[in-house]
Specification:
By secondary structure, the protein is α+β, with helices and mostly antiparallel strands. It contains 1 helix and 10 strands. The model has no long low-confidence stretch (mean pLDDT 85).
Length: 140
């Protein structure tokens, strides 16, 4: 002989399970911003920028994100984002330095800090030189 559960108890059990499921989903929804806040992040795919302009040694190519420099033996790209507060750097050809217009930090063409308030050097991006267009591929 089996006992059947009364209708009111079944309804109460269903409501309880629904509330638990909503509580778990709400907790998961709150967990995402908390994990992002404490520094957990999914690494982004590298951005590859193609430069179709030829670059003569001793010259440079100015992009919104980086400056590409060329010498006889090497090519390198330096970030234009200041490590102090993220302002976009300007390149002064006469002095051969990058200058932050916001707080006057100075950086060398190699990304080293010459004058603060910035404390950290600039990011250096990998550059691939090619013989045909695009002549350079900068991986950021």
């Amino acid at each position: 002989m089996t006992k059947s559960i009364p209708q009111s108890k079944r309804k109460a059990r269903r409501v309880l399970l629904t509330r638990r499921a909503l509580l778990i989903l709400g907790g998961l929804a709150l967990l995402h911003p908390i994990l992002r806040f404490i520094g957990f992040h999914v690494p982004r795919k590298p951005l590859r920028v193609e430069v179709t302009q030829r670059l003569v040694p001793g010259k440079f190519f100015l992009s919104p994100q980086f400056i590409l420099f060329a010498t006889e033996s090497k090519f390198w790209a330096v970030s234009r984002k200041c490590t102090h507060l993220g302002c976009t750097l300007n390149y002064n050809e006469n002095e051969d330095i990058l200058i932050c217009p916001c707080h006057q930090s100075h950086f060398s063409k190699e990304g080293l800090v010459l004058h603060g308030p910035a404390q950290n050097p600039l990011k250096i991006y990998e550059v691939e030189k090619r013989e045909s267009s695009p002549f350079f591929i900068v991986t950021m």
